[in-house]
């Protein structure tokens, strides 16, 4: 059954999208079948995989608003083993119109459970469409704690919280841990979380201090792997490729690969 | 009458909050009376001016939801001439509940026009409370294009769009210009805009290329002043002071000061 990971943080610009696309590339290199889902109206994940959000036909909007199946709007990317559910401007009104539906928080969870979880076994023996088997599903969230991110948290096995080692980002961890408690009590008791320190500049005293404070406060809740500042990540975004497939020997590609290994060990 | 500036960009982490607090500090140094308004549930502007969002009594939530006046929830900061309307966790539900009100897009504009604009003249001669006269009002927006940011755009004379010279940020300019067109046709025909290049690292080829592309595409619509990467800005956030009052001779303090001069010349 796919292991579902939400990548979220209310703080903007902490490398949520960069982490989804890079981690997905690294997981594929470890023979994992991966589906990434772009839940952000900005559609940066769609862009980071070389697609033009203005030209996609089916998207996550259809799943959230028109009961489309995830498989019907997913498509291949340039990377074998990596599929994408894109986003587009239709998501602009999601925060406003999603909450009017009954059990709106569970729409994504039901779409995931209904489709992908069953695709493994074939109980009835009936002729089923050739189902795709994913090992991991990664959800890229917008920088907010609204209805869309709530859907992702209700659907996830694990929440990864990318965090820049800076003051505003560290402060956002307070909100994130409160939200996790609420999601656990209402929708998803099994939700686990891990903090990922990103864009780390070891020459910067503030970065070293804040990273130490985060580890002191959260202990096991922080990945061992730290992602350093690496301008090659900016370049790979322009190329429409994960860093692992654009500059595979770069420092950040190797760091996201270490993260993938740490994650696979954690999941097993 | 106060000149109202919204600082907004759907892209997260582009120095919206840092620009509001730094520009406000620079304007105060030019004998301008300034009110800054925190419209973000993250409450980073409130934090950046040394206040704990968890302990504020009145906030922008009261203005948007309970018809409180801006002046009733504004307060002094450590900086003479700089007042703050803080934010708090109450703003978490704003995107969901604001749109149910009639003319929700104009709530902030009416609060600004109703109070601050009249505070100059005193037509009826009646005994009015000692009004405060602001030269500038700066609105710090969350990283989204929802109901809260719409309120700010409907109320503003000028929209400043902080932009990192990177791929995802540059892509966000497409959405921003579409939104400006909509706001002009429906709520605020006079809305002007200026792009501010932030966090610029001149050693980085991508930064130089993207900055050139933005200037080529937007010409006059881009401030001359560019804000470079400067770790002292991170330090001033921790201190709860604008960079102009924490490290007044730093490169970024001087750059935000140049920006303030460019802005004052533009307004006159
Ligand atoms: N380790 C890194 N080193 C250098 N640049 C990075 C790194 N990680 C991300 N970036 C760049 O920083 C910017 C912010 O990253 P990204 O857009 O992935 O963050 P985000 O959290 O998804 O933002 P948003 O809140 O807008 O969704 C991007 O321009 C990205 O290319
Ligand atoms: N010129 C700069 N040089 C170095 N660091 C900066 C600069 N400007 C801002 N920062 C830092 O970058 C981070 C992002 O800035 P900031 O939080 O102001 O952006 P924002 O657009 O308000 O983010 P959000 O979208 O979450 O509201 C902060 O940690 C801030 O201290
Ligand atoms: Mg993103
Ligand atoms: Mg901000």
Question: Which ligands accompany this protein?
Answer: adenosine-5'-triphosphate, magnesium ion
What is the H-and-E element order of chain A?
EHEHHHEEHHEHEHEHHHH
- Strand coverage percent of chain A: 5-15%
Q: Give, in spatial order, the strands making up the sheet with the most strands of chain A.
A: 3-4-2-5-1-6-7
For this entry, what is the oligomeric state of its chains?
homodimer
Instruction: Output the number of helix runs of chain A.
Output: 12
Q: Give the tally of β-strands of chain A.
A: 7
**Cα-to-Cα separation, first versus last residue of chain A:** 13 Å
Main β-sheet of chain A: number of strands, strand sense, barrel status? 7 strands, mixed
What class do helices, strands and sheet pairing of chain A give? alpha/beta
Task: Report the C-alpha radius of gyration of chain A, rounded.
Answer: 18 Å
Written overview of the protein:
Two copies of one chain form a homodimer. With 268 residues, chain A is of the alpha/beta class. The first copy, chain A, is 43% helix and 12% strand. The first copy, chain A, is built from twelve helices and seven strands. The first copy, chain A, has helices spanning 16-28, 44-48, 60-66, 70-73, 94-97, 107-117, 147-155, 167-186, 205-218, 232-239, 243-246, 251-267, and strands at 3-7, 34-38, 75-76, 82-85, 136-140, 158-163, 192-197. A seven-stranded mixed sheet of chain A has the order 3-4-2-5-1-6-7, with helices on both faces. In chain A, strand 3 (75-76) and strand 4 form a beta hairpin. The model of chain A is unreliable at 119-123 and 125-130 (pLDDT under 50). The A-B interface holds A 10-14, 17, 41-42, 44, 47-48, 89, 92, 95-96, 99, 142-147, 164, 166-168, 171-172, 175, 204, 206, 231, 234-235, 237-238 and B 10-14, 17, 41-42, 44, 47-48, 89, 92, 95-96, 99, 142-147, 164, 166-168, 171-172, 175, 204, 206, 231, 234-235, 237-238. One adenosine-5'-triphosphate sits between chains A (12-18, 40, 42, 44, 143, 198-199, 227, 229-231, 233-234, 237, 252) and B (11-13, 143, 166, 168).
